[in-house]
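Report of the visiting student (M.T.), summer placement. My assignment was to run the structure pipeline on a short list of targets and document each run. The first record concerns Alanine racemase.
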Amino acid sequence: MRPLIASIRLAHFRHNYLLARQQHGGRALAVVKANAYGHGAVRCAQAVADVADGYAVACLEEALQLRAAGISLPILLLEGVFEAAELAEVQAHGLWLVVQNREQLAMLLAAPAAKPYRVWLKMDSGMHRAGFFPADYATAYRELQESGKVDAIVKMTHFARADEPGCPATDAQIAAFDAATAGLGGETSLANSAGIMIHADARRDWGRPGIMLYGATPLPAGHAANVGLKAVMQLTTRIFGVRELGVGEPVGYGASFHTERPTRVGLMACGYADGYPRLASTGSPVLIDGIASRVIGRVSMDMMTVDLTDIPQAGVGSTVELWGDTISVNDVAAHAGSIGYEVLCNVKRAHFRYE
Ligand SMILES: *Cc1c(COP(=O)(O)O)cnc(C)c1O
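After the run finished, the structure tokens were exported:
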């Protein structure tokens, strides 16, 4: 068996969910879109099914996967529907949906509603990606309300810069949201993970934690609010080859790295086809039998090479942590100019082990 293993510690997922909800107060939808950020949506959803208030996914396809697995809690479609035909499925499966623009609103107002819809009406409070402008929000709200097709409207918005401590943009978004929703009844939902972690004003009726559930922080490394999260995925592999090189020898494709000293090179099973970012080549951190080292040379499709020179006891069979309890996925991502979110979502081909 190829030794690349993504251990998914579901107890950590559960711990992080309960922590997120406690920090937020009120209720929290566990965001399990994109196959639970690469961790396995059904398994993660099941791990909190007895405690969660519901889930959020990107689209109908993701929601149906959870329903097919027997998940019966509320599920919110964060992007809403893409075509009117999806509304029949929304009805059949009792899904909640975001309405974020005129087109989606028109589809809903024209659709049959044997049962009432539960709508999360999204405002563009400053991110300028999706949602009704503040000036148009109350009109959309009233149209929905007067349609007789909804049983409740949750007022929501999404933050562009909540992960930047000290940045005033989030306070400005909150102020815009509050001003434009004044007098409109119903519950509210503002906070993603970073909102929950560092913006007390963003904690309303419903939190929408995502990345923090997987134990990765959206905040800069070392930020005090990062404590308490537990990495859910531990990605490990093994060394399956070793060679000794002299000084000035090239390693890997493109000879992008040359040895600067006599070097023991370890070969391990993991590459960019597994989701390890190719741009995180020489310098990216790894942990070999518990000792910190680094990637040397380019990451290739199925394999990569690491520096064993200072770990003489390591050799064929040694365990390598690519990220997890010790190596932060955010650090690996930073070496590739990316973020932990993207790196986690990309993991594939590894053997997934649920613990
Ligand atoms: C993905 C998403 C979230 C979760 O964001 P994190 O930063 O992962 O916590 C919350 N709300 C919406 C609308 C989203 O699309």
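The first strand starts at residue 5 and ends at 8. Residues 31, 33, 78, 158, 192-193, 208-211, 218 surround pyridoxal-5'-phosphate (CB under 6 Å). I thank the supervising group for their guidance throughout the placement.
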